[in-house]
Amino acid sequence: MTSVLESLGRSPHDDLSAAADALVGRVVIVHGASADVIWQSANGAEDSGLCALAKSLDVTPVAGDWVCVSEERITRVLARRSVLRRPNPYGREPQIMAANVDLVMIVLAVNVDLNQRVLERLSVMASDSGATPVVVVTKVDDSDDVEQFCTLVTQHVPGVAIVVTSSLTGEGVEGVRELLPLGVTGVMLGASGVGKTSLLNALEGTTEMTRSVGRSGEGRHATTTRKLYRLSSGGVLLDIPGIRLLEVVADQRGLDQVFTDIEELSLLCRFRNCHHAGDDGCAVEAAVASGELAASRLEMWREMQSVAHDVENRRGPADVSRARRAMKRNPPETSE
Ligand SMILES: Nc1nc2c(ncn2[C@@H]2O[C@H](COP(=O)(O)OP(=O)(O)OP(=O)(O)O)[C@@H](O)[C@H]2O)c(=O)[nH]1
Ligand SMILES: [Mg+2]
Ligand SMILES: [Zn+2]
Question: How many of the other CB atoms lie within 10 Å of CB of 206?
């Protein structure tokens, strides 16, 4: 039989051992100083309720977090195995949108011209999260050029699987369901209005939330909260508000995964630290010259490098002063 934690999307990669004997649950939705949580009670049965966030918490829980619950209070947020961050371009800490996700579904509506920059940035966010990215193309009932759209998508995020869907006709919905079996947590990432909530409804077979969890009813308009749903396919899906802020905190690992084509070519550059900008023996620039690599790919790579660089620079001083403060509190031990 599926345990309560399994039905909440517990994956083999979740380490809940730090919870020891405490009751463990998963955060469905956070409302400021409290959160809806579903947990497994001492007798193994499912329980749920609105839990206050204990003052002692060092991390603010988000939807998808595994937490310890005691007397309707969240007493601990367990280590996260992945986090989806909303980048903050002003150098402040990036905001965490979802925790412990396996699959980031980049949702794009086919009836809107593909914004390549948006796609690149969403895929960097997905790669940075540590989850697997997949592109979900929505509203295919509303376009004659689905194939062309998908070709463009593939050009910009080579190697990422694409699922083509219509929440209106149900096309491709089964394919999405297959991505979300028991033990898999997905999150939908995309601009407002691309059809994320509609897809969630289509997945569950009706226009109403059949298995929505938590207490608050679902609005008919734009999603304003981040909320976890258990699906009949066994998996768990997080519906989050559309992304408006598209600055990306990109780390190098995320960039390399998005630009696998450039990454591979750069292995052939004469110098390991080649900047692909007029360097001697640059294989990337040679590939552009021969037409093997689109010049726009290299331009995009350069742009992303500079965004990542800016972010690193902004992050730097804050980190240094934080480290200094920490040092004052805990001066290094001098042993003699
Ligand atoms: N033609 C067509 N329209 C769709 C489809 N899916 C969604 N829509 C329409 O697109 C609009 C936005 O859908 P939502 O599901 O609310 O979009 P969302 O991505 O959840 O938006 P936010 O919550 O603001 O992020 C609605 O008017 C839907 O009826 C589809 O498959 N085909
Ligand atoms: Mg929505
Ligand atoms: Zn090079």
Answer: 8
Match 């042993």 to its residue by tokens: 335
CATH architecture of 4-77: Beta Barrel (2.40)
Q: Which helix (H) or strand (E) holds 295?
A: helix 295-329
Distance 265 CA to ligand 3 centre (A): 8
Q: Which ligand approaches the C-alpha of residue 271 most closely?
A: 3
Which ligand places an atom closest to the C-alpha of 293?
A: 3
242 CB near ligand 1 (under 6 Å): yes
Q: What is the pTM of this model?
A: 0.72
Which of 198, 209, 246, when mutated, tests ligand 1's pocket best, judged by the most ligand atoms within 8 Å of its CB? 198
Instruction: Give tens-digit pLDDT for 76-112.
Output: 999 999 999 876 544 556 789 999 999 999 999 998 8
Residues of the chain with pLDDT under 50: 89-90, 208-220, 245-251, 315-336
Domain borders along the chain are 4-77, 83-239, 259-329
Alpha-carbon torsion angle 121, 203, 223, 72, nearest 10 = -110
Q: Is 115 in the pocket of ligand 1 (CB under 6 A)?
A: no
Tokens of 230: 């258990």
Nearest to 183 by CA among 4, 62, 8, 3: 8
Question: What pLDDT, on the 0 to 100 scale, is given for residue 248?
Answer: 44
Fold designation for 259-329: Ribonucleotide Reductase Protein R1; domain 1 (1.10.40)
Give backbone dihedrals phi and psi of 75, rounded to 5 degrees, phi first.
-100, -15
Q: How many CB atoms lie within 10 A of CB 198?
A: 17
Nearest ligand (C-alpha, residue 167): 1
238: left (phi over 0), alpha (psi -120 to 50) or beta: beta
CA–centroid distance, residue 232 to ligand 2 (Å): 19
83-239: which CATH number, 3.40.50.300, 3.30.230.70, 3.40.630.10, 3.40.190.80?
A: 3.40.50.300
